[in-house]
Amino acid sequence: MSDESQDADRKAQPAKAPKKVRRPRRFLRVLATGLILACAFVAAALVWQFYVTAPWTRDGRVRVQVASVAPQVSGQIVELRVTDNQAVRKGDVLYVIDPFDFDVAIASAEAEMDNREADLQVKRTQAARREALTTLSTSVEEKQQFAGTAKIAEAALASAKAQLSQAKINRTRTEVRAPVNGRVTNLLLRVGDYATTGTVNIAVIDTDSFWIDGYFEETKMAHIHVGDPVSAELLGYDPLIRGRVESITLGISIANAAPSTQGLPSVDPVYTWVRLAQRVPVRVRIERVPEGVTLVAGMTATVSVGEAGDHRRKWWTALRQRFSGWAAPAPSP
Question: Where are the alpha helices (DSSP H) in 140-270?
């Protein structure tokens, strides 16, 4: 072999090494690209599951029943026994209306009842005397008249008794009491104000009636059922409030249902590619409030339905079943 051929062989040998090095690098690049795409797919699936289908919402509100107290009788307030934001029990006196006029009404009704009782006694005696006489001493018509007069006296006595009962109940109503256990709120009354029958002048928050309304997007309603466990986190508090789905609203307002000009339907335009999901109110019954958490009507809450991680497990199971169904061969006819 000549020197020229040996030099050519030595030059040719290093030229083959880069080809062996390029293949592992290309495989690594393809593998890295595949891993990145897989991670992106998993991340997109998780984001879709978390934000679109998972039954949770930040649009939750603490709600409560408020007892609007109005007096059943009118009069000047002579005593105010509560202060603003004071806790009260059912039956506690909130304020007192001047009872003088009602005491007079009771005395007058009692006197009227005594008068009617005496009149009835006289009318019954007269009717009994006429009834004992024969038709030679009195006529049948006269007997009927006296008997009717006694009946009228009985009715008058019954009316007097009813008026006395009304006067007594009105006297008890001068003490306006709390209808529920709760807390007085936004108290603006003062001694000397005039209370008018049927006009609300004090409000009591029913502390036994707190609940949470979660406004869920319609895309998440398939995963919400009555009785499902619920955890709610109030804005500003770390402990979670536990509860259960009590009910789901079956109707919300529809703008397109309102009639417009000439009674025709007023239909709003809808974007073809963008449609906002409607929100459906879900009522949550509170079962446990952590110590140190103060419920205030109107507070914002993040509401999650189901046990922690339960929806994610169901979602992955459904995803695996879907892909396994695609991979399975079609059944033979």
Answer: 140-172
- The full set of domains in the chain, from first to last, is 51-64+210-318 (2.40.30.170), 65-98+174-206 (2.40.50.100), 100-172 (1.10.287)
Report how far Cα 244 is from the mean position of its chain's Cα atoms.
Answer: 13
Q: Is the pTM of this model over 0.90?
A: no
Q: Are 168 and 110 in contact (CB under 8 A)?
A: no
DSSP calls for 78-95: EEE---TT-EE-TT-EEE
**DSSP summary character for residue 259:** B
CB 285 within 8 A of CB 211: yes
d(CA 282, CA 56): 11
Q: How many CA atoms lie within 13 A of 106 on its CB side?
A: 11
**In sequence order, which residues have a C-beta less than 8 Å from that of residue 74 and are 6 or more positions away?**
97, 194, 195, 196, 197
pLDDT tens for residues 100-144? 999 999 999 999 998 888 888 878 787 776 666 666 666 666 667
**Higher-pLDDT residue of 69, 125:** 69
Query: 168 to each of 102, 103, 115, 164, how far by Cα in Å?
Result: 8, 8, 18, 6
Q: Cα separations (Å) of 279 from 29, 69, 106, 169, 216? A: 46, 33, 57, 49, 5
Cβ contacts of 32 within 8 Å, gap of 6 or more? none
What is d(CA 271, CA 143) in angstroms, rounded to the nearest whole number?
Answer: 90
The phi, psi pair for 12, rounded to 5°, reads -75, -30
If one counts every other C-beta atom within 10 angstroms of the C-beta of residue 235, the result is 10
Q: Helix, strand, coil proportions of the chain in percent (round to 5)?
A: 45, 25, 30
Q: Phi and psi at residue 270, in whole multiples of 5°?
A: -120, 130
d(Cα 275, Cα 254) in Å, to the nearest integer? Answer: 15
